[in-house]
Amino acid sequence: MEGETPSQRSVLNLVAVFEERRAGKPSWRDQQGQATPAARQGLSQMAARHQAEQEKEEEKQQGQRGLSFKCLQSFRHKINQDDWRRRQDSDLQPGCREPEEKKIALELLETEQAYVNRLHLLDQIFYTELMKEAKTGKTVPEEVVKMIFSNTSSIYQFHAHFFLPELQKRMEDWSCTPRIGDVIQKLAPFLKMYGEYVKNFDKAVELITLWSEKSPPFQDLIADIQKRKVCANLTLQHHMLEPVQRIPRYELLLKDYIRKLPPESPDRSDAEKALEMIFMVAKHSNAAIAEMERLQNLWAVYQRLGLEDDIVDPSNELIKEGPIQKLSIRTNSTSEKYLFLFNNMLLYCVPKVIQVGAEFQVHLRIDVEGMKVRELKDTQFPHTFLVSGKQRTLELQARSEEEMSAWIKAFQDAIDRKEKRSETFKTALHGLETDTPSLKTEELGRRAPQWVRDNLVTMCMRCKEPFNAITRRRHHCRACGYVVCARCSDYRAELQYDGNRLNRVCQECYVFLTGHVVLEDREGKHKGILEKEAADVSGRSLLCSSLQLLDKNGKGGTRGWFVIPQDDPLVLYIYAAPQVKDLPQGDSRHLFQLAQSRQVYTFLADTEELKQRWMRAMARSAAGITHPEDEDSCDEAE
């Protein structure tokens, strides 16, 4: 086309070739540009020597049946050792020493010719013959062959019809144009296609191994091609490794070329730009590989979790997973759980008994944002640590000191990374500053507190009254985590960490969170039954009467005035000084039991009617029904 420069026509031709279908693709040996006799004479000995050294290096790896992507990291170290580079000085006659940069340019051309030959073997021989057999339906499906070779054909066409001819032309005109930086700079963007090939390499090797076992004709055809002279006694997998190694070799050669350029060389600027573009291509390939592995690992985790919609997110990154022991503040025991720590959330899971589909069930999700972690000094449960999040605070126990340290480090790393991307949380590196579970005043209601264990407290942490199983039970303030009695925790406040839902809180937290002043009559609303007058109690109760609470042996027990207050129906009070009386022999007609918190209490009523009334009242109280069953709800003791 008139008016176009040679560089523009080259790129346009490149794009046109990529748009052609594979069926209409010409053979490279029929169309590739040929070097002049003078250039071939100067390159023949160098090409032969390099080919011999390259084959010798690859024969060392021939014993492997297949190659996995996991071994590819070692190849970069092999490339950096320069043992694949050929020596040129011995080929030059005395007095004919050429510039160092030209030697490296010739080496680039020489290795490119050998590389194109390898690509021709992969695309025109292996792929063509395997696809031909696949179409007969006797070996493997056509799609399998396409997945094995990925975009090998595009890579081959690019190097055979564009990159190699451009290098050959430039070396022929070296005396007039001693530079290669502009050539590489012009074509380097197309090297990004290697990202797809490298990303598919591991899967391709797995498919070759799998179908070699499943299909003997497939295996026999590959073995037959590998016996040919053109394969140099190397396996298909070793030939497929060449494109993976090519980009790092470009980078090393170009670096060496720039180092050998004279300071005033006109090619320095283009060569440096070309090196930067090659570096970006290598980075692009590495990023594609890392992203592929991350998504594969993430998908495997999602399958184990049952693919819940609110969890599946391609942007997540799994940091650590493993079993852990969860400490129960109620029973003072541990139970096995399983944690999945992501970059933005912690999934608190339990293993499913019947593992059909999902392997774990997600019980809780805690955001990493605002999370804190610290070690706990617990002599009863060693290797424990605290994870405090907005939604929940967990006390966890590891199996060893090393495992605990690994978990704490993983949590802290996730927290630090989250804080670097967020301006709302400045410093929360070391968790809570003291061994007490109380939160800082500004954190009340914003994050879940650490609950004080029941077995560590014998009296209410607010009013200091002692706890007992019947008259004063333990409750937890959802804002500060203190263990308090019912009287001190008869308040409700919205907590931000729980979606602004109303939660049970103590009086101090209620005043702070709501700003409301507690009136004096409100403070005395739930005084214990021993502090109230008998008439006052009887007038405001669901049911009250004289009962006997039997001991575990059923031979005796405590007799007193039992009351279910109308304003606190979930608590059973005993009024008056208790007396211990023996149970009359054979008198078991009016017994009934109350089961609560793994404990069973046995009561003896004076009459069958009174027993039935108590049973109905307890059932109504447990159901939350606070109005009396009838007006005369209280029987007076004899």
3D architecture notes:
It is built from 18 helices and 16 strands. The protein has helices at residues 6-19, 28-31, 37-59, 73-80, 100-135, 142-149, 152-172, 181-187, 194-214, 216-226, 236-240, 242-260, 268-305, 401-420, 507-514, 520-523, 534-539, 608-622, and strands at residues 318-327, 334-342, 345-351, 360-367, 372-376, 384-388, 393-397, 475-476, 483-484, 491-495, 501-505, 541-550, 556-565, 573-582, 591-596, 599-604. The strands form 4 sheets. The protein has a 7-stranded antiparallel β-sheet. The protein has a 5-stranded antiparallel β-sheet with strand order 14-13-12-16-15. Strands 8-9 form a two-stranded antiparallel ribbon. Strand 1 and strand 2 form a beta hairpin. The longest helix is centred in the middle third of the chain and has 38 residues, at 268-305.
